[in-house]
Amino acid sequence: MMNDPLLKYREQHKHRLNYMPWLYWSLKPKQREWAEAWQAEYQAYLMEMETVEIGQNCFISPLAHIFAEPGRKIMIGDNTFIAADCTLHGPLDIGNEVAINHHCILDGGRAGIQLHDQVRIAAYSHLYAFDHGMALDRPIYQQPVTSKGIEIGQDVWLGAHVGVKDGVKIGSHAVVGMNSMVTKNIEDYAVVAGNPAELIRYRTE
Q: CB of 100 within 8 A of CB of 86?
């Protein structure tokens, strides 16, 4: 047990940041000092252990699960955060000012996932850049796996519990409502929702 109340508070503050990483950028100078040291140590460890590049001023929760073996690189841009209990498997190309909230899953398959700048992904969203065959001549687990890749444009907001299928491109400035399943391309500025996701309106209207 920790007898120092300050250390107890710091551990709880770390726990809060793991699940609410946007608070990292509003820390007071004294808190920012230990938080930056904590992040620098963890990010250095992550880049040593996995094929990962991390930009400047990022927050990566140590409670996230990040896997990037050679050939499945993960690149993370500046001012980006990845919250607790996410599972990320490369190849992933994550831009600047991207938010990946807790319990998200991004698996790049072979073709990869690209998130352009300022993408916001709410909690429990799943992006899988691969698919299985479904022929009846053999069990599903023996089917060939295909991978076309996923691309999410700039300033896109995916609501909570959104799923994105392999081969999909979501245009810039689009919004996907929570609990939606995206199975086909989405145009720039479109607002979509549903399973499968369908157009509701355009943000320009």
A: yes
